[in-house]
Write a structure and sequence with these properties.
InterPro entries: Calycin, Fatty_acid-bd, ILBP. GO terms for molecular function: lipid binding. Belongs to the calycin superfamily. Fatty-acid binding protein (FABP) family. This is Cytosolic fatty-acid binding proteins domain-containing protein. By secondary structure, this protein is mostly beta strands. It has a ten-stranded antiparallel beta sheet with strand order 4-3-2-1-10-9-8-7-6-5. A hairpin with a 2-residue loop joins β2 and β3. The chain starts with 5 loop residues before the first strand and ends with a strand. The mean pLDDT is about 90.
Length: about 130
């Protein structure tokens, strides 16, 4: 889990626009994106910043929590540590997406899946 701690800056996107369209969210291209993972007591905190907007999620592994997106979509998530991957299952209505994050040295790859659409964001540790 410690490998995920720190701040990650978006370096590359693959098929993210198609994924965002599939889930019904507008992608803000050209806006700097960072993700920061930290620990607060018994909870983990994930902060996602896109330009001037930020979303903070505070959670415990394997426990469902109320979640949303920067566009204020109401949903629920569960994040689990499976081997060296953080696997997030996000549900809203009857829909579900999966987000798999994996650290490899100074890079974190985030693979997102919804229906038959898949995309990736590759981050570099700051």
């Amino acid at each position: 889990m410690e490998a995920f701690f720190g701040t990650w800056k978006l370096a590359k996107k693959v098929n993210i626009d198609e994924f965002m369209k599939a889930v019904g969210v507008h992608e803000t291209n050209g806006v700097p994106v960072t993700e920061t993972v930290s620990k607060e007591g018994d909870h983990l905190v994930w902060t996602i910043k896109k330009g001037q907007h930020a979303a903070h999620i505070k959670f415990t592994l394997d426990k469902m929590f109320h979640d949303g997106t920067i566009q204020v979509r109401q949903c629920f998530s569960t994040i689990s540590l499976k081997g060296n991957q953080l696997v997030q299952v996000k549900k809203w209505g009857r829909k579900e997406s999966t987000i798999i994050r994996e650290v490899n040295g100074k890079n974190m790859t985030m693979t997102v899946k919804f229906g038959g659409v898949q995309g990736q964001r590759i981050y570099e540790k700051v």
